[in-house]
Amino acid sequence: MAIEGPFWRAVAVFRVASLAYAAVLMAQHRGYEEPVIGWLVLGVMALWTAGATFAYSIPALRGRPLLAIDLLVTMACLLSSPYVQGAQQGATGTLPVPATWVAAPVLAWAVYAGRRAGAVAAAVVAACDLWLRVRTPEAPILINGTVLLFLSGVVVGHVARLAKQAEERMQRAIEMEAAQRERDRLARDLHDSVLQVLALVQRRGRQIGGEAAELGRLAGEQEAALRQLVASGPPPAKGATDLRSLLLRHGSPDVTVSTPATPMVLPTAVAQGAAAAVGAALDNVRAHCGAGAKAWVLAESGEGTVTVSVRDDGPGIPDGRLEEARAGGRMGVAGSIRGRVEELGGTVSIVSVPGQGTEVEITLPAATPGPLRSGRR
């Protein structure tokens, strides 16, 4: 990712500065009885600094093999310190030959894989450093360097991971904005051409009647479907479904579907069950209210719930009709609507007034429900 570039450049600058610091310590001959070997180690460090800086600048080379080699080279340079320090090993104020250069692979692991990887790399380097100190019992064992290694690995890894997540979110927002612009452009083009033609065919078909009326009806359905396709938003996350997209498929000249402007994201099984229950309610409208009956589907989001109501202008349901149908084995409302919704953890209420139509209200939890309850009522 582009956001990683500044982090890798910062690690490269740290390598160079730490190498210069180690060279200054070697030039002062502080605690190094074998400076010739020390300069050889510094030469290896300089070569690896140049090679690692170049390798990390190429995204394709950044990976665990390079990071592992980086850690091994650093450990080898660190473990060479006793041969350079000689009898001065462990003396107060004496640092290992690489000095602060040992923190470079810790920072690299942290940038690449986050705070956990940074902490593990810090533990490996710290273990080598502590092992060298334990070999000289007369010298005090200081853990200041170990603490700093862990802090740098964890903090830098955490910041790098946050930066990557922020870049991913920004990229997602840019893609959604681009998709919305393309959707708006398509909407304009469709409105100026296809949708106007379909609307004209629908009107003329109704005026002419006969077979032309059927063509007009089909044109109207396709016009509604195209409008819904253009108006739909970006797809939700995997395993979830925007209930609006499922409900809008029921739209037609005789069925008006109204949904919020914002997504109504539900677990896929819940969204599909709710849409199926709405479809069953609309089937009842077509079967029992006669040709030309109108229906309205309204979806709303509440606090922790989603409510979908299906209302029609039919003759209504006579008192006792539902109980009579259930007793006669006709399970349309009881099974296809009420039973399906209750399995999803929701509720169904039916209000019908003879001569004034029927309203079926479906209420579902917005969160993922627990295990589905068996048995339909």
UniProtKB/TrEMBL annotation:
<dbReference type="InterPro" id="IPR050482">
    <property type="entry name" value="Sensor_HK_TwoCompSys"/>
</dbReference>
<keyword id="KW-0812">Transmembrane</keyword>
<feature type="domain" description="Histidine kinase/HSP90-like ATPase">
    <location>
        <begin position="269"/>
        <end position="368"/>
    </location>
</feature>
<keyword id="KW-1133">Transmembrane helix</keyword>
<keyword id="KW-0902">Two-component regulatory system</keyword>
<keyword id="KW-0479">Metal-binding</keyword>
<protein>
    <recommendedName>
        <fullName>Oxygen sensor histidine kinase NreB</fullName>
        <ecNumber>2.7.13.3</ecNumber>
    </recommendedName>
</protein>
<keyword id="KW-0408">Iron</keyword>
<keyword id="KW-0808">Transferase</keyword>
<keyword id="KW-0411">Iron-sulfur</keyword>
<dbReference type="Pfam" id="PF19354">
    <property type="entry name" value="DUF5931"/>
</dbReference>
<comment type="function">
    <text>Member of the two-component regulatory system NreB/NreC involved in the control of dissimilatory nitrate/nitrite reduction in response to oxygen. NreB functions as a direct oxygen sensor histidine kinase which is autophosphorylated, in the absence of oxygen, probably at the conserved histidine residue, and transfers its phosphate group probably to a conserved aspartate residue of NreC. NreB/NreC activates the expression of the nitrate (narGHJI) and nitrite (nir) reductase operons, as well as the putative nitrate transporter gene narT.</text>
</comment>
<keyword id="KW-0472">Membrane</keyword>
<dbReference type="InterPro" id="IPR004358">
    <property type="entry name" value="Sig_transdc_His_kin-like_C"/>
</dbReference>
<keyword id="KW-0418">Kinase</keyword>
<dbReference type="Pfam" id="PF02518">
    <property type="entry name" value="HATPase_c"/>
</dbReference>
<dbReference type="InterPro" id="IPR036890">
    <property type="entry name" value="HATPase_C_sf"/>
</dbReference>
<feature type="transmembrane region" description="Helical">
    <location>
        <begin position="36"/>
        <end position="58"/>
    </location>
</feature>
<keyword id="KW-0175">Coiled coil</keyword>
<dbReference type="InterPro" id="IPR011712">
    <property type="entry name" value="Sig_transdc_His_kin_sub3_dim/P"/>
</dbReference>
<feature type="transmembrane region" description="Helical">
    <location>
        <begin position="90"/>
        <end position="110"/>
    </location>
</feature>
<feature type="transmembrane region" description="Helical">
    <location>
        <begin position="7"/>
        <end position="24"/>
    </location>
</feature>
<dbReference type="InterPro" id="IPR045975">
    <property type="entry name" value="DUF5931"/>
</dbReference>
<dbReference type="Pfam" id="PF07730">
    <property type="entry name" value="HisKA_3"/>
</dbReference>
<feature type="transmembrane region" description="Helical">
    <location>
        <begin position="65"/>
        <end position="84"/>
    </location>
</feature>
<keyword id="KW-0004">4Fe-4S</keyword>
<keyword id="KW-0963">Cytoplasm</keyword>
<feature type="transmembrane region" description="Helical">
    <location>
        <begin position="140"/>
        <end position="163"/>
    </location>
</feature>
<feature type="coiled-coil region">
    <location>
        <begin position="163"/>
        <end position="196"/>
    </location>
</feature>
<dbReference type="InterPro" id="IPR003594">
    <property type="entry name" value="HATPase_dom"/>
</dbReference>
